Amino acid sequence: MTTLVCSQARCRFSSRGGFLASQMMASSSWKRPAPLLKRLMAMGVCFWRCTNLGCWICWPRRVGVESVDCYCVDNLLARIGDPQFLGYCHSQGAEVGARVVARAHAQEKVGVFATRGGELSVVEYSELTPEQASACDPNTGELQFKWSNICMHYFSVSWLQKVHAHLAQGTAYHIARKQIPSKDGPVQGIKLELFIFDPFPIANKVALMEVARSEHFAPVKNARGSASDTPDTARDAFLALGAKWLRDAGAVLELPPGRAGVEVPASVSYGGEGLRS
Q1: Cross-strand partners of 179
Q2: pTM, 2 dp
Q3: Residue 262 — left, alpha, or beta (φ > 0 → left; ψ -120 to 50 → alpha)?
Q4: pLDDT tens, 101-160?
Q5: Is 141 helix (H, G, I), strand (E, B) or coil?
């Protein structure tokens, strides 16, 4: 199996190579849509950019690429080209695959996997009511919407071609009400978003693989000093994983106070293997 690896941070093919995020107008009012400025769209637009470049969607097949491994650049523990995940998706004949982690708590700002109309979808946290977000399974006591989407995806090339035809028929946007920069300063406004997971329901088969948060998910969403998901918490998670790998390999570590762990470069070990030698 040959897989192409790409990042969700770059979405429109440019003359310099790679993909760049697309833009659309944001508005200061829903009733009076006065455009303020061009805003970066969410990563769903990459499907349009990829498939509208007909040569791009045909090129993988010509060179023998069967699938695309898509990762999110703000996750410091993103395991790129994970052979276990890619092999699982391929063996299941999946058109779409996703790595998932259990939600840390009911208020965690992550999308969740759920069924809507009998189809597997991702529901954004902003689209869940507080009651839905905190609902628990009476049989297990776990959160009912347990599996969070961490934007680590697998797409078959044939499915990407199907997405092209689907989006050509039109699609709905998500409405995000948030502070938007303007020439007069931040204003409360409305931004239309299209997410990379929006076309998932058209997939005939979706494979989900639960992974350990401590080994696969250390997002950077907030500035230093915030309660969670900061550069510092991501760094600590990365170092702690390196220390775990070394201890599992038999090393005895004496870390100075305040140090979370040890960096194990990817050039030394991809996932903790080969450290005993």
Answers
A1: 188
A2: 0.78
A3: beta
A4: 999 999 998 999 999 888 899 998 888 999 999 999 999 999 999 999 999 999 998 888
A5: coil
185: Cβ contacts below 8 Å, ≥ 6 apart: none
What dihedral angle (degrees, nearest 10) is formed by the CA atoms of 73, 79, 84, 88? -10
Tell me which amino acid residue 82 is.
D
Give the pLDDT score at 103. 94
pLDDT at site 60: 65
* CA nearest neighbour of 70 among 145, 146, 148, 157: 157
- The C-alpha angle with vertex 47 and arms to 41 and 51, in degrees rounded to 5, equals 135
Selection from 224, 217, 208, 103 nearest residue 153 by Cα: 208
174 phi, psi to nearest 5 deg:
-90, 145
Residue 80: closest CA among 149, 146, 157, 151: 151
Rounded CA separation 101/237 (Å): 15
- pLDDT on residue 21: 44
